[in-house]
Design goal:
The chain is α/β, with parallel strands linked by helices. Helix content is 38%, strand content 16%.
Length: 207
């Protein structure tokens, strides 16, 4: 009987900078993790302007799923930038790297059989599509938290729009850095018209 410490390894193809690395074949499969948890792993990717309601919806959704006995975790843009991505700024290149990293983290959660809720502005379509490409069909649910810029500015829960308009905050999405809405999201939530709980109900039906 072969030793469990002699597991086969597969070539690692993700980066030309790491030709000496190989992907380790794991003994416990995703299907077995999902069977233990009682549900499939998924990523719920909430994208939209600052002030659109992403974090509010993420928290309400996690609470509902937790009450349903689902294993969940929230990856919130502000929290991640205080830890894993604290070395990144807000240039276009850093924003792209921000999304690349969080997409790979989200994939690990999905492989673990967890429903991971990503609440990131994630302003650029190309980066969101690159994130989607990491997942199998049906695992990545892009949800556009849609609100007019004027409404987001009126809410301005962190005072960021006010600072951006005053020139104190550069490269702020919606002001001097663009936001590119999804072209074909799995769901659109118009948060100027529906409540956070109604948003949660729509996402739960999608899941």
């Amino acid at each position: 009987m072969p030793s469990i410490f002699a597991s086969a390894k597969m070539p690692h193809q993700t980066s030309p900078h790491t030709p000496h690395l190989h992907s380790q074949v794991l003994t416990v499969s995703r299907a077995e993790r999902e069977q233990l948890g009682g549900h499939a792993g998924r990523v719920v990717w909430l994208t939209g302007l600052s002030g659109a309601g992403k974090s509010t919806i993420a928290n309400a959704l996690e609470l509902e799923l937790h009450h349903q006995g689902k294993r969940t975790y929230i990856l919130d843009g502000d929290n991640i930038r205080q830890g894993l991505n604290q070395d990144l700024g807000f240039s276009d290149a850093d924003r792209a790297e921000n999304i690349r990293r969080i997409a790979h983290v989200a994939r690990l959660f999905v492989e673990a059989g967890v429903i991971v809720v990503v609440a990131f502005i994630s302003p650029f379509r190309a980066e969101r599509e690159t994130a989607r490409a990491l997942f199998s069909p049906g695992d990545f649910l892009e949800i556009f938290v849609d609100v007019p810029l004027a409404v987001a500015e009126e809410r301005d829960p962190k005072g960021l729009y006010r600072k951006a308009r005053a020139g104190q905050l550069r490269q702020f999405t919606g002001i001097d850095s663009p936001y590119e809405p999804p072209l074909a999201p799995e769901l659109v939530l118009a948060t100027a018209q529906i409540t956070p709980q109604e948003c949660v109900q729509k996402i739960c039906r999608l899941l």
